[in-house]
Amino acid sequence: MSVNEKKGLALHWQVIIGLLLGAGYAWLSIKFGWNQFTMDWIQPIGDIFINLLKLIAVPLVLFSIISGVASLGDINKLGRIGAKTLGVYLATTMFSVLVGLTLVNIFQPGAKASDELKVKNRVSYELWRDAGGVEKLDELNYAEQNPEIVEEIQSTENNHNDWVSDKLNKAENTKNSGPLQPLVDVVPKNIFTALNDMKMLQIIFFAIFFGIVATGLNEVRKKVVVDFVEAVNEVFVQMVWVVMKAMPVFVFALMAGQIVKAAGTDPENFSQLLSFLLRYGLVVVLGLAIMAFVIYPLLITLFIKNMTWKKFLSGMRDAQITAFSTSSSVATLPVTMKCVEEKLGVSERTTSFVLPIGATVNMDGTSLYQAIAVVALAQFHMVDLSFSQQAIIVLTATLASIGAAAIQSAGLVLMIIVLESVGLNPAWIALIFPIDRILDMCRTVVNVTGDSTVSTLVAASEGELSEV
Q1: Domain of 305: which CATH number?
Q2: The overall pTM is greater than 0.90
Q3: pLDDT tens, residue by residue, 171-203
Q4: Which domain covers residue 173, as residue numbers?
Q5: Rounded to 5 degrees, what are φ and ψ at 346?
Q6: Given this model, what pLDDT does residue 160 score?
Q7: Neighbour-count burial of 404, counting CB atoms closer than 10 A to its CB (0-12 exposed, 13-18 middle, 19+ buried)
């Protein structure tokens, strides 16, 4: 059963229409003062959608990984495949960050804003920097030269809203942890608490541990466990399809609510934001397209002789469309598995292990987006980042993406850490949040394609790749 099999307009086109209608409605809401109605009656519908996906995602990951690990059987093989999987994931993530930095330095989307807006942004940055005792990145002093802008900002600007405060607190807790704290955080004290709090890395640890122990059972008991896990997993897969049928309505509500929340009641703010966000968004989409349609197919053709780039992209089409529609690697997981197994020839044992892990810890698209966003925001505030500071972005974004699954709102929360690593204001994330939903759809395509690439490469190295 597939969401793409139903008659009529394809789901991904329905989603795009929902996005456009949501943006159009948001503009009308801002212009005619419907914001309170939008936040009270439209935004909650989008929240329901996110809650439904979270409801399904956790058990889907849990049972998929248990099934994959238990079916592998050989513990030595499990360790070998795990090492290869994590190694390739790390390499592709770092490369995606480099692609993002290259593009944002070439096109400079933040630097093309109006001089008046950039000066105001620069003054705002200097006030934040000086108030917080943050190290100066340059000797510019626009605040001293523009006292009228300083007065305007001080009288009207709040440092950050409650939403940003929540993200700042989560990022601060993550940043201040000790060197081995990430390892400690992987092991849950209570699996039910981990499930309730959506601690994805802890859930993965438990699932792998459970699956390894299950492989040591006698064949009769092992079969009972595996059959039960696979049956429950299938139920959650079907739940995904049910939720996806209502996605266009949910997406409309999400888009309308987020734009209204960011732009407030001033139409001029809406147009100024839109201009910057359009340039920034196009650069992000270009980088994601290079990864999904150039880099990954190139890796496949270089390391797998019998697979062409055309065959790879053709085989991944359904998974990429579903990823774009759902904006969730986990929700796309059933389609990804089907594409990789049936159209690329990867064994079920490999996909059941590699893909669920990739869906939660491989964030190539997210790290590329973080790199572009941080530099673009710096440009938007007239801050030039040096080569060494951009090298810090490479390291921070790469390492942060590995632990992204353990944090809710991972991309934006981890961007705070990247911003702070180079001395920039973490509250700037509020500026780019209005189009984060659209870009999330695009970067999910990259994440899913990257997962499939790694799965195919690992399968080929293990002799688990067959002709299809």
Answers
A1: 1.10.3860.10
A2: no
A3: 566 556 666 766 787 798 999 998 887 676 688
A4: 64-222+264-461
A5: -80, 140
A6: 45
A7: buried
